Amino acid sequence: MSEPQKIIHPIPPLYDQNCQILILGSFPSVKSREAMFFYGHPQNRYWRLIAKLFDEAVPNSVEEKKRLVLRHHIAMWDTIHSCTIIGSSDSSIRDVVPNDLSVILDHSKVDRIYCNGAASHRLYMKYIFPVNGIEAVKLPSTSPANAAFSLERLAEEWMCIKNTQTNFS
Question: Which of 34, 79, 119, 130 has the greatest count of CB atoms below 10 A from its CB?
Fold first, then answer.
């Protein structure tokens, strides 16, 4: 077991002015911090899930991943700006400083927020909801640690993201 480390979130938020939905994780895993992009662990099912929801090919490169979510008006970030953490363990997170979501909310059309997993949702409701007043929907985690959910079961639960989008003409 490694030692706790105080870490500042190294990945900038991903969004553009057309984003309608914000998906928040808790804090980047060691693999994501190394890759400098969201859901960098090869066993995390996030990218396979998003591709499945929108009937698209699974993206491989960071650029393909960015294009996939932005094409579907999805913004991405995490609830935590900095924390003390051991490795990638959400259960070890301490000394939380939340992210300021106004950087996304003030420059996009985001009006719905979804949390990828219980830790993200718990931290959002504790630190961010009191500031912005926007309810967040808790979705089951795409982490490989959430072995109770198959990709198919995750897709059933996450389908609400696809079903709530407004189409632009």
Answer: 79
